[in-house]
Amino acid sequence: MNFKHQDTQITVAYAAILILLSAGVYYLVNAEVAVLATLVAGLTGIVGLVLNVYRSRAKDDIAQNEHIQALLFVYEMLDVEAPLPDLTEWAISPQLAATLIRLVRDKQPEVVLEVGSGSSTVVMSYVMEQLDRGRVISLDHSAEYTEMTRSQIEKHGLSHRVDVIHAPLVDTEIGGEVWPWYDVGDVDLPPIDVLFVDGPPQSTRSLARYPAVPVLRDNLSGNAVIVLDDAYRPDESEIADRWASELETGPPEIEKSPYGTAVLYRTS
C-alpha cells in the first residue's frame, strides 16, 4: 500500500494501537473503563494528528512556493524560443536550474562540460547564447537520451552552442579500483570552466559520480566551478567531500534544492 503523506501512515498506526489498547483494557478491566480509555486516547490522537497534518501541509506549501518562485526566475532569465523541457522527476529541479543560470552567468565560461544530458543542457545553452560566448559539451551514456537531448536543443535553436556526445560507460581504473565511466578517449576536451556532474546513475555502483574529478582534473581550468547534483544523498555528500580534499577547494557549498546541490570553487 502506498501513502502520499506521513500523516496517513501515522493515522493507520495509531488506529491499530488504539484497537489493541481498547481490547486489552476490555479483557483485563471492564467495558466501561475500556470505553473511557478509548475516548481519551482517541481525542489525544485526533489532536496530535491535526497538528501533524498542519505541519506536513505547511512544509508542502513552502516547498511548492520555492518551486514556483524558482521556475518564474528561470523563465524570467531565459529568453526561450519554446517551452522548456520538464523540470520535475528525473530532470533537474527549477531550484537547480536557477543555480546553474546564476553560476554560468557569473562565471561567463568558455566551456561548460556536463556529465549527463537533459533539461540542464537546454538551460545552460540558453545562458551561453545570452552571453554570446563559448559552448556546452554534454556527455550521455544512453544513446536514447543523447538523441532526445539533441532534439530538444534543435527545437530551441541552440545547436550552434552545444555538442551532445554519446559516450558509453566503460571500465576505468582509478586508484586501483574499476569504475564505469564515460568513454571520452576520442573526445578532444578543452579547458573546462564549469563542470556539472549529474551522472552516471546511482545504480551503476557506489560513489558512481566520483570519477568525474579524477578523470577530468587535468582538463579543469585553474578557476573552474564544479557542480554536483543530488548532494543530499550519502554517496554524493561523500563524493563532494572527496573532491574538495583532492582539489583543496575548502568545504563544498550546498545550494538548497529538493535533492541538494554541491558547489566547489577551484582557485589557481
UniProtKB/TrEMBL annotation:
Segments spanning the bilayer are 12-29, 35-54
Coiled coil (UniProt feature): none
Q: Which InterPro entries does the protein's record reference?
A: SAM-dependent_MTases_sf
Instruction: Name a Pfam family for this protein.
Output: Methyltransf_24
The alphabetized UniProt keywords are: Membrane, Transmembrane, Transmembrane helix
Q: What is this protein called?
A: Methyltransferase
Q: Which organism is it from?
A: Longibacter salinarum
Is DNA-binding given among the entry's keywords?
Answer: no
